[in-house]
Write the C-alpha cells for this entry.
Amino acid sequence: MIDTPDQGRKPATAKTGAGEPPLEEARLRQQAIGVKLRHMFDEVVNEPVPDEFLEILRRADERKAGGDKA
C-alpha cells in the first residue's frame, strides 16, 4: 500500500479548484470570519465617545449655529 498525503482526510464533496478546500469548508470559514467581524464591530459601536471628541462636536455645532444667524 502506498501512503498518500490525502490519507485520513475526509473526502471532498465539491472542490472549488486545484488545491483549494471544499466549498463547505470555505463557507464555514467565511461564516466564522463574519461572526468575528460582527463581534468586533459591536464592540467598537458600543465604546463610549471620548470627552475630547464630544467637545469638538459641541464647538462645531456652536460655530454652525452662529454662522446661520449672520
Summary: The chain has two helices and no strands. The first helix runs from residue 23 to 45. The mean pLDDT is 81.
